[in-house]
Every structure is written in structure tokens, then in C-alpha cells.
Amino acid sequence: MIITPSILTADFCEIGRTIDEVIEAGINWIHLDVMDGNWVVNRTITFGPALIRSIRKRVGSNVFMDCHLMVTNAEENWEQYVDAGVNLVIAHVEAIEDMSTLISNLHARDCQAGAVLNPATPAAAILPFLPDLDLVLVMSVVPGKGGQSFMPEMEEKTKLFRAAIDAQIAAGGRQTKLMIDGGIKAHNIAQVADWGIEVAVVGSGLINDDGTIAQNLTKIKSSLLS
Length: 226
Ligand code: DX5
Ligand code: ZN
Fold this sequence. Notes:
The protein is of the alpha/beta class.
């Protein structure tokens, strides 16, 4: 299981130091939540390509970075995130008209392509694109902010994706990764591993006042072993 931090609960004045702490804890995948003040229901604005470019500069080229685009016009503005240095762009299926073209455009720029769906969106919205997707992200909260409660009812949808991806791989197709995002903590990480999740986004479970990132990561990893 790969653990990737969402930095939404970080103190943004300290972001460089937080990123250093993440890397020192041995994490090599960073999840970047981009909200444009329009798309998520609570109209949050987080950050954009400028901060992502600075984070890329800080971590160097060996750290994998994805951006989770919660924006209205990903079809038009995806390329600035590639230019800023992300390795994977994840777009909401509810927010764009033409997922196939976006996937081809990303691949043409040597960037991985991911699709994400809200808790209320059925798996069928993404399944047609599965053969070309590098990653599928299942939201286990309604996107908009860190620190929300995990929705266990995402089990069925997650297992459906797991089965579809396994069948695709068995038939010699793409090794699409399965990721989950929202409310993942030490107490439920083993459960989502059981569902077949390979990459878990952890925000407030890693970056909080209870412990250092390294301490929180150790707690999460040990609950995966028990
Ligand atoms: C929600 C974001 C998530 C979230 C994760 O809109 O996509 O990445 O911030 O944070 P936690 O782990 O606190 O739910
Ligand atoms: Zn996210």
C-alpha cells in the first residue's frame, strides 16, 4: 500500500518545512488538491500551478506528484499542471465532457492520466475509460475539505473497480492503479487495503497536531500489519 499525503490540513506558511518532513518520513508520492473556488460545493480555493512548481523544485525529480483537479475547466487548463511538474493528473468525471480526449492529451505529454468520481457517482461513469487510465480514484468523502468522515458505503464501488482492473490486467491490459481519498486514518486503512486499494491519500491522519508526520505514518503502517 502506498500512502500519499494531502497537504490541505498543513499550515500553508510552513509548507516547505511540511514537505521536507514528508520526504524525511520516507514518503515519495505527494497528492495535490487543486480547488478553484467554483467546482466544490463549499467553493473552496486551495492552490494552483505556482505552488506545485515550487514543491517540484523543493523535492526534485524523484518524488511522484499527482494533482487532483477539483476545477470547472480541467479540459482547457490541465496543461499548466503538467508544466508545473506533476506526473499524474486526476480529473473528476463529473466536471468534464470528454474524458477520452483529456487522457490522450495527457499521454501525448508523457503524463499519466487518472479519473476520479464523487461518492454519488456510479462506477459506470468511469468504466468505459478504464483501458486507458493509469489510475482510478474513489472519493470516500464529498470533495471540498480535509478532515471529513470516511464513507464506508464506498465498499461496493471500490470492489467493483478492483474486479474490473484485475480482469483488465489478466487480459494483458493496462495496470491501472486504484486509489482512495477522504477520511483515511489508522483505524480504517486495513479495511480499504482489504477492498483492493493500492494507494491511499491521507491528509488529516498524517498532518495534525497529535504527532509528527513520521509518528503518524508509523501508526498507519502498523495498523496495516496487524
Ligand atoms: C478532499 C480532498 C482530500 C482530503 C484528504 O476534497 O480531495 O484529498 O483533503 O484529507 P483527509 O484525509 O483529511 O480526508
Ligand atoms: Zn484529493
